[in-house]
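Quick log. Single chain, no ligands specified.
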Amino acid sequence: MILEMKVPSPGESITEVEIAEWLVEDGDYVEKDQAIAEVDSDKATLELPAEESGVITLKAEVGDAVGVGEIVCLIDTSAEKPVGAVANGAEDVEKEEPPKKEEAPKQEVQQKESYATGTPSPAAKKILDEKGIAPAQVNGTGRDGRITKEDAVQAVPSMGTPTGGSRGESRSKLSMLRRKVAERLVSAKNETAMLTTFNEVDMSPIFELRKKYKEEFKEKHGVGLGFMSFFTLACVRALKEFPAVNSMIDGKEMISYDFCDISIAVSGPKGLMVPVIRNAENLTFRGVESEVKRLAIRARDGQITVDEMTGGTFTISNGGVFGSMLSTPIINPPQSAILGMHNIVERPIVRDGQIVIAPVMFVALSYDHRIIDGRESVGFLVAVKEALENPSELLMDNNITKALEL
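-> predicted structure:
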């Protein structure tokens, strides 16, 4: 029996996927539920499992866009499993002798890469040595390819002319996910009145809390006490105070939410992904850290789903993990605001009339000025700053052990 495998719907509003990689070859024997391909949608990369066991016939190539419901491969379920076949459908390679290496072709390649097979004359060699040019980079015009003095003089690079280094280039097709991200970023720049406001945060109180409680916290809960829980809960508090920041435009209407679904930008193998922490307003420090860890692992392993990346009301992006000092993050549409975190650097600040050295982070809030005014944007960022600089009172209600569930 020949089974026609069709592309399943990976999520609402997705009409086609792109074959990112075939994990099997045409004619392989595959097992039921074995991952046979990775497919890109405009929101995520997903694995395609075999629906039945049998010999597979591929009907699409890598890079092909295949509509949802279209046939992507055939599986002959009546075919018997070949002797020596392993789980991934490949033959037992232990019986095959490794291919012998041939030295001759390598020598030919090396010869082709050289611009000259002759040797330089003494005068030419002196010029080339002075200018730091290898003889192999010069095309000799003398007898048997010998490099003459004139060849060496002409080979001397003029000011600003690059020579000797690699000048190759490569071209690869953008994945469907990367193309969709690009479209959304351009759309956010073109269709929103985006503006960015900045502030700085003295991270000393958070440093002191983490230094004192992080070991006990990790031992009890199995996750680290990172910065994301402080920033997430600080944003939740500020979003409740300034609900316009937790809103978005739909045509001629503004939709405001009484819940906080916080999107967190993470870097995955297929590029930037933005999974969502649902109802962050109901989570504790332990709950936020556990959810951040779970989503980051799923994004790293390519297991994140479309549903886990849709529906956020506000985004936090941490460019500081890559060393960013300051940036203007781009709004994640259809949301109306995004908070950018940056690296923490010891800087001189004034505290109680004295100049002291403190760990300081610059923070940035990009927002859609169509529905968020300056009062709300600046007030929101100040509220975040206040909570981070006084977490014991504003985020922990002056009961640290209870807030950290210790």
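The chain is about 30% helix and 25% strand.
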